[in-house]
Design brief:
Number of helices: 12
Number of strands: 0
Largest sheet: none
Strand content: under 5%
Distance between the termini: 65 Å
Structural class: mainly alpha
Shape: elongated
Radius of gyration: 24 Å
Length: 256
Amino acid sequence: PDEITPGPPLVRTHPTQDAPSGAFELGMAALEAGQLVEAVVLLRDAVDSQPFDPVRRKALVEALRLAGHPYLAAEQGERAAELIPNDAELISAAAAAWLGGGQIERAYNLVQRILRRDEQNAPALCVLADLHVARLEFSEALKAFDKALAVRPDGETYFRRSQVHALNEDFNAAARDMNRAAEVGLSQKLPDRLRRYRQLAAVLDQVFESLALRTRNALREARATPDEPSLGNRTLLLVNSVRAFQTYLDQVDVPD
């Protein structure tokens, strides 16, 4: 009989020991495209193939968080931290996920675990700042962001600090940080861009509600006690705040 020449292999192996399709690469591509369900499935396979790879672990945590599963993301992050205990960014990702799910104390405990080892860990300081924001402790949040920027002056941290300035109604500082974020540069991945838009929209909504409430209370007070001596000065401060907010909205663009 004629010799049979072997053809190309039906299954191509990869140096990463992934599934034949390259689960990690495909998962990251799906994550960048915003295809979150597919990203989670693929990145789970990637983690199963290399469970001690922190990059894959962090990608899965992020995919679960973006897909709206903060508890699963946090649990995945904590399990990963047990396997890779010295990766502070992995623990920070888990803490951020707990915070996203409203579990402030669990997030705080994880952050403190990192900062006890390294008080200048920038990712942990950023999560600590977010924890202070959740507690409406804006001055403490700004201090934590200041420390993080002193260690690692990246665009994402400037962007996040600008939001705290806006919540604190310091709109000039908010605009400066937003512009600085654009100068330094931000991730262009679609999930990151969408997250920034959502975060800024939520902050602007809170600021608008705060200014509207102050305006309504001032009008009520003016009707009830028009001769109150301090009313004029407080109303002027309110008007100045509203004008500054309008200027901020005119000046600032969400960095792409």
